[in-house]
């Protein structure tokens, strides 16, 4: 928690414009305006995005009963991207909230299709589930790329999905607040989601409504994924790596891990964004690049740790 607070404060002060503490609390100073219009909205967006993606990954792993699944490895993120592309294609003047709705609907559909594919596979191994998800996600991603190339909107799509917080300011980050509903929903439904991790048969025997819990879980995952995608772009690995790291050291009980996953996801993205801003200062690297590098190293560590145990 202390590390999170330190990184949160540090994130506010890191940037091209230097902050002078003498003028910091003067509401008519340039430093104050920079804080309110860019630094604070950016840091808030980072925290919410990291928490949303990590909790969505934790819930996805609970639903699929597989540690190698997340919104980015089962087609949820790619389906949300396809929804965005189609909204840009057919409704070029649509508002950001309408685009978010399109992405949300397609994320739901994509996730349900993935789960339907899993039901068709009788012999399911822990490695086969994410493999099916990655192949399905690649098909959806390729379909979206085809539409973008065919109708010459690739640059427009890339501008939305570059995975960068540098364009966040006081006028463009409000959409991220919608993902708070996803976070709160996962926290409130923690007990039910803990039960669903036991499997369909045991969940029904315990008197819980498996299908309803599953549907609500997919809604929450899709909502959070779509909103983060529309606000900051495609951020990989957080939903996959963070829940596994917490599980490695705290066990697999969903309800007990929620707070740790939430804070760790936000902290991971804060650190990545700070690095993205200082590595080639005063220039900035897209945070998705830093997350991809750190996330891939941590993922390899998790794989080796799993084999060792």
Automatic annotation (TrEMBL):
It comes from the Bacteria. Coiled coil: none annotated. The chain crosses the membrane at residues 40-60, 100-121, 127-149, 175-193, 213-246, 258-279, 285-304. InterPro entries: ABC_BtuC-like, ABC_transptr_permease_BtuC. The keyword Transmembrane helix applies. One of its GO terms (cellular component) is plasma membrane. One of its GO terms (biological process) is siderophore-iron import into cell. GO terms for molecular function: transmembrane transporter activity. The keyword Transmembrane applies. Keywords: Cell membrane, Membrane, Transmembrane, Transmembrane helix, Transport. Belongs to the binding-protein-dependent transport system permease family. FecCD subfamily. This is Iron chelate uptake ABC transporter family permease subunit. The lineage of its organism: Bacteria, Bacillati, Bacillota, Bacilli, Lactobacillales.
